[in-house]
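Recap for those who missed Tuesday's class. We walked through two folding examples back to back. For each one, the amino acid string is listed first and its predicted structure tokens come directly after. Nothing is annotated here on purpose, so try labeling regions yourself before you check the end of the notes.
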Amino acid sequence: MEDFIRSLLALNPNYDADFLEKAYRKAEQLHRQQFRRSGEPYITHPVAVVNILAELGMDDHTLAAGLLHDAVEDTEYKLSDLEKEFGPQVALLVDGVTKLGSLVYESREDRQAENIRKMFLAMSKDIRVLIIKLADRLHNLRTINYMNDEQIREKCIETLEIYAPLASRLGIYAFKFEMEDIAFKNLEPEAYGELEAAVSMRQEERGQAIRRVIGEIKEMLDELEIHYEITGRSKHYYSIYKKMQFQQKQLDEIFDLTAIRVIVESIKDCYGVLGAVHTKWKPIPGRFKDYIAMPKPNRYQSLHTTVIGQTGNPFEIQIRTAEMHRIAEYGIAAHWKYKEGIQSDNEEVKLAWIRQTLEWQQDLNDPKEFMETLKLDLFSNQVFVFTPKGDVMELPAGSTPLDFAFKIHTAVGAKCVGAKVNGKMVPIDYILQNGEIIDIVTSSNSKGPSIDWLKIAKTNSAKNKIRQWLKKENKPQSSDKGKEMLEKAARRKGYDLQLVLKNQYIGRAAKALGYSSIEDLYTAISYGGPLMNRTLLMCAGFYHEEKQADLKRKEKKEEKLKAAEPKRREHTKGVTVKGVGDLLIRFAKCCNPVPGDDIIGYTTKGRGVSIHRKDCINMLSLPEHEQMRLIEVAWDASEANIAYDAEISLLAEDRKGLFSDVSKACEEMDVNITSVNAKTDKSGITTMTLTLAITNTAHIIKILNRFSQIRSVVDVYRTNS
């Protein structure tokens, strides 16, 4: 621990060593009995996460939360106890990165969506939640080779779809590029290997060219008396791969495999270097980008230009200040708003997209729709346009005047009838381009948004405002339309409307989906999307639940009637008792003996003989005075086809379709499942215990062998008492 604290203080001597030591000791205590898949003590993971956070320059509370980020999720430690010991800031951060554990979801996708929703809510209160989560994901990726193939694939896809784009949004490119390359290497190992080999083959040749260009730039800047730092950087493999895939280019056609980066003292020097570069080499048209005058939403600033060298080969040059470079590497973490206790209103503006995401996601009750919309929002490129007053507006690429209008104000969007782009009238579905001046045309006679506007709008914020307006203004009509759409869908699927679409079922579905009334649910259905089918499936499920409940009630009623009849003496079947005939016997539920097992009889008081396996723990632990009740018994060979209950347990990595595969295996072997019990622990391991109707021990061995072949099953055994 001393070395760990010492390494943190080396990065920042102002860290509170006592506070961090306290957090370390608590984390070590809580995770003492836990180990990673690699066999290392679990504490190595939070320590590695904190090292990553410390390199970003994060504060004491963030480091403490990094040490304790798994404590609430993976131990008995309560959030309330954490808040008492480490304060509300640390508790808020840990709670933000803690997954939802107690709720039951229909699928992993639903669970993932709800966890992402929770993280976004926490992010809106404190962006450090996401920074901790990104550091956690980065270290898990660095040690991903200890997971199984299915887990590796799942984590890597999730990283490319969610976490790497989030890192990009925050401008933490050091995280983004490493995450992408690790995910790419594991998802496409052949493509990664081929690309790595191809890039390495040309590395020396490129290196010589870069060194020559750097020498020439140094001569120019020395003459201009500009203080500078010049480096060459190789492009990351996933970035190269994406360009080759999306632009249908060969490796030789990628201009910026290697970029030259020039770091200077001021913005004035940036443009001075740019002028010198363009004077010496010819720039390629369309390849110059001024991110200083027009920064990216994540605060990234730099000048990018691609020029043709003396040999005819193109190369990219990036020019920025030292401060810009720090932001380019660490994004929002580079100007941490909690440093020195200062909060910045500017940071709140830069993170407005998080709040916007929270706004539109409130209207998306379907988890899959939420995730798809989030992915679209994360991956969208940006377009920059101007208001007539010259203010810059940032929108996703493909946005229309409708998106622009609703971003200004809901009232402007609702009355929009068109727009002027650079002084010329355009329709509301016109695709906006960079640098255009947009003037929205409104009319007091406008009827307002229609459902068709949802197809025109690009931004989730605009779509959400359109939906809200439609709900408010056209609720009766929309409700009727939604009801009609649901009934049509039910007819297509062959459902009896009077049975499946009862008001009580629709009411339950509305409540489960987060709607205050049936009318609100119908209105939401009228807007289209997967909600209609989701509602229909839920109603059908409720109908089948009630049907099954009725059948069980009938069965219980019949059982009560049978119980009222005079009881008959149980017959001896399948077992003979040595020296005794016509004796009442029963098979012990604690060990469920079957033909082939060595068995023993236990004489009970008034209930005949109880048949046990000889290795039954209850028999082996009998007191001496009770052993007098044991008698010899044997299987009756004439009763070979009788079915007996046997209990089998299997351990498997939790996945969709696991029980279905188990049921299919039983069906193949013509084995009846009489009961099943399953539970999944925090590590994702499912324990499934089945009671099966079998004939003998050979039958059990066959079943065990078949179960062991099921995907993700790690162990299978016959349950012993």
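Example two. Treat it independently of the first, because the proteins are unrelated.
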Amino acid sequence: MAEKYYSILTNRGKELETQSSATGKPVIIKDFVVGDGNGQSVKPAPAQTKLVREVYRSAISALQISPDQANQFIAQLVLPVNVGGFVVREVGLLTDAGELYSVANCAAIEKPENGVSVNLQYRLAVSETAAVELKVATGDGLFLRLDRNLGEIAENGPSAQKSAREAIDVVDATTLRKGLVQLSNATDSKSEGLAATPKAVKDAYDLAKGKYTAQNATTAQKGIVQLSSATDSDSESLAATPKAVKAANDNANGRVPSGRKINGHALTDDTSVTSQDIFNDQAIGLSTEDLDTLKTPGIYFQPINANTSAARHYPENNAGTLLVYKNAGVTQVYLVYNSSRAYTRSQYSTGAWTAWAKRYDSVNKPSPADIGAVNKSGDTMSGVLKADAEIQSTIANNFRIAYGDYGSFWRNDGSNLYLMLTNKGDSYGAYNALRPLRVSLETGALQSETPLTVGNTVYASKEITAGYSGAFAWVEQYKTKAPFFNSYSTTGESEYHPVIKQQATIASKNSWAFSFGSLVAGTELSWHLHMKGSGGSEVNFKWDTNGNFNAPGQVNPGSYANFDNRYYTKAQSDAGYMPKTGAYTKAESDGRFQPKGSYTPAGQAYTKSESDGRFQPKGSYTPAGEAYTKAQSDARYGVVNGLRRGGQQVRNPTDAWFGNWESPAGCVLTGVNMENRSDGRKLGVYYRQLQYLNKQTNAWVNVGD
């Protein structure tokens, strides 16, 4: 199927036409854009905002109204001699804002860079409601406004038409220039602004034929001559036709004039082109161009630092040389003028440019940051640092942690290793007076000069020695702490707080557990040494806050000297007591003294009679206030302990025939008797008395009113 070539308005072009219809503000078409379709034929799409791949753009060269349709215009673009090296497959029109107004495809047109210019023509229909302005490159930037039907020029007469033509460099022909010319049939006119029609030529020919005897033309005389379209004939009797002249002209246009030179080499003979010829004076100077737009292969140079801003996509703010290479896309290399620094970037097809990549060499070495390395002169890590070998330091202070308001670090002063702390708000400052941890480098001894709190078990294979430097006066002992100190406060009714515990075992025989601590019992405190054996035996020594000591076994003093002031020696006893005959008899002693035992001192205990009068007999009682007294219970509750019916009785009425008769109060009716009446009828009621058992008297009592 044959390829179709056509132009369309883009979606944005349609939006602009709609806005133009609503506001009356014209759409301004300014530039002509050319693309190669990325090497493939293209199909215009309304959604396009740019060509598939743009290769060239410029202002519109010329325009005209379509001679066959008044709502169409034709725009022209001339591709200059020095532009080329691509194949044209797509074209478009841009507004003054650089937006793609229209897009079209075309047959492949090769544009070599060989001195040949190419004229492109773009035909586009606009709507009947749109107002369109075309900004033309010629005519000093004049604007040609085309109204909704493109008929404005025709309606304004010949003067307006002439001005419009001249605005696009279409002028009237004269003897000195080409242009538009009016035809004339006159054979007697002397005008130099009209062109003779074939009719006028025929009339003149016929007139001349009648007056002139035809003869063949030669190089020596005028005459009739035969036309020839040959371009290789040596004839001097034939005249060349315009076709032959055009063919010769086209051939000449494809040839380089003999007076031309390449880098000073005349083209009159074969010449060798060297790299010197290519690079000598071939670099193209840059001004304020955006490097993103430089895609034509070549050598460019930027001489001014001020023009090398990041906004123009320079790799750094320095003048230099730009090399542009053609490949699957475009590659740019930028060389800084005053150093050996070089940068490279690329663009594939119509994609985005890659970032400038700096080339590294022996002079321009990468920084640690460039390659993601740690700077040996100091750096900040954003991730975890791991090492398979030692991390060594040769200074006293090292391994600092700075977090929050405080800092901490290790310090080796040559004698001791310290864990150091900084003052608040100075996490990177020097150490303060606190020494929470110190290790002797000579002995390995560990010392803390601040309070040490241990939240778990402390194991010691040797003794624990605690120094003490508090007040030693007896009256000051509770103002300071001891080498081992424990303090607790509780609201518990029964708690045991051990201070020292030990477990001891004689292998294969017995085991004992020893516990030393204080016991909370209600509001009383006591100190205990508690021992419990594996056989179930248990021993508890107790000291209470009243000064009493309770020992479950014997107290065996190592010396009885403490008791000498309490007991008489045998000699003292013999001297202090009368002989047996002077002593109380057993009966006298029993009557005078109470049996040996442990007694409360006189006045500190009730006598038996006082106690009997004061206390009730031993038993289990409900606490006062928690039970009713006998009187309270009798008053509050009845004395009924059961209910029953008494023996059956009968009552016969004594009233009149129609009187009432009933059982006594507190009785239950059990039957009716119809016998023993004087009138022959037998009437009466049977009843039983309701009774309850009195718990106090244990007697049954009749229930009454």
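Answers for example two:
Residues 284-359 form one domain.
The chain has six domains: 7-167, 213-254, 284-359, 397-447, 485-593, 630-702.
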